[in-house]
Amino acid sequence: MERHVAGMLRQIARQQDVVEIAPQGSTPKAAALAYVAEQYGYTYGMAYRTGFKNSLVQVRMYRDPRPDARVREAATIAAHPQAGNGGTVPGLERGSLKPLPEAVGAVAVLKDLVTFDVMAQYVADRNQKVLGYLACAVLTLLMLIDSSPVEAVASGGAVALLFTAAFKVGAIRREKIAQRLTDAGFLAVRDEQGAQRFLRPGQQSPGHTDPTAA
Fold first, then answer.
1. CA–CA separation, 175 vs 171, rounded Å?
2. Which of 65, 80, 92, 180 sits at a 20 to 30 Å CA gap from 41?
């Protein structure tokens, strides 16, 4: 835990416009660290999987230019002068990435934001579905070489059913997350690539010079 916090705080200390968080593939850990970054004057930007076999959840935080963010940052630094060096960390239990009771709600919202963005890589669009079902057809044809028509069709159909179930489950889960974010006051928008995102009122899509401008 201390290593992740210390690494993030080194980026924050340099007052970087963008801070990258990648806590070894854990969405809850990523959300907890994103909460800490917010206390130092940053705001959530986006999340995606990266690294070997997509084992890392990468979260991108943007420096919030608003005056209240600077006040929040100053108050956090004053209250937690040894954060990252064995001292207390805002919103987290000492020595862990488990949120304190007062931070549980905010961390849960950040977890939903991270999960929604990460799932965009796995919720298939029309092209992905076409490729998936085409692969099933190819599998069926290949099995016809060494198997009976009944076995080949049954195997290809079983794989197609698995594809269909996976697509549906992912879509349903993402819809539930979207509803929770809407209930929490976030606004559904489309970014420059046409992907659905959820932003706080007044926040612009990631990649703008000022990601929190009205």
1. 6
2. 180
